[in-house]
Amino acid sequence: MVTGELEDRVRAVLEAHWREPGFTVPNARVYPWQWLWDSCFHAVIWAALGEGDRGRAELVSLFARQHATGFVPHLVYWDGFTGHASLWGRERTSSITQPPLYGHAVAELVRRGVDIPESVTEAASDGLRHLAHWRPRSAGLVPVVHPWETGCDDSPRWDRWLDGPWDADAWRVRKGDLVATIERSPGGAPSANAGFRVAPAGFNALVAWNARELASVTGEEALLALADELVDALEDRWDADLVTWTDPGDGADTSGRVRTADALLPLLVTRDPARAAAALAALVDEAGLGAPFGPRGVDRREPAHQPRTYWRGPAWPQLTYLLWLAARAHGAADVADRLGAALVGGAVTSGLAEYWDADDGTGLGAVPQSWAGLALVVAQG
Ligand code: GLC
Q1: Does residue 1 have a pLDDT over 70?
Q2: Which residue puts its alpha carbon closest to atom 1 of ligand 1?
Q3: How far is the CA of 238 from the centre of ligand 1 (A)?
Q4: Is the dihedral of CA 144, 24, 4, 348 positive or negative?
């Protein structure tokens, strides 16, 4: 497919998903609200479509419900929906966060010549500093308080927190229960969860990388220092035998070592070229994560691998995009080309799906899903 055709399809989907006061829903039926990391990816896609104003609006609306302490909720219910109020203990937003992709979104929009108001760069900086200061670290890393905060909701990395073998229904119930044990700081922002103690490598890589991305715009030393602290701590989590970064916390010796694509996100920040080379090779190794429309979300050699089950094996466009950026940053043009082709091929074959079968591109989850438009960013190079 030529880029022009892909661009038309991505534009049509994002237009159909555009809502007031200026954001894009991931999918009109399954995901009808504003999600944090989705919105950051949408901002980049809008910029790639030449619609920088919409990209900026996406970030402005995302920060509209930020706490004074910097906390950014992962869901905003702009349509007045209150059906989740008892789960979150509040109306209008959720009370947990998601990977702070706003550092990248701000930097990418600025690189593309979009004017970003100081209020947005300050809000993004406050959001990152909130994570650094309000969450007691575990092995030097920022903990998450719930699987949903990672964006990788049903990853086998969290299997340690389910009694018995993994099962989608049992895990759904468990995820609901885990909200109840979240501990909160004054003001209501989440700080810890004794029922879910983990500081995931993937989440921390995204905090560090977004801090660096934002600092590339603002020059803020504190953000660079935060990134350095997290990168140092991540270097201690490398497992050379498994070729993955592992998660400190209660699952450190069990599910915290399962080989997943998101656990290779420290590729975005690692300073160790040998580790980077090993992780990049793992992404395209067809014995494990590599696949024509991949990388797989979970290494096929893992007992937990299920090729079509949500977060247990399919390929995810937003992860492939991030790993493509990492491969390019490491100068690994061959790996970047393979990941880029897999993302574009998967997006087209799946009909711009939420996620897809890594072997044949069959669309899975919500279709169409706005973030599959990241394929356009890759196609444009
Ligand atoms: C699913 C994904 C999450 C995403 C949301 C909206 O819950 O696991 O990462 O943000 O859908 O697309």
Answers
A1: no
A2: 151
A3: 27
A4: positive
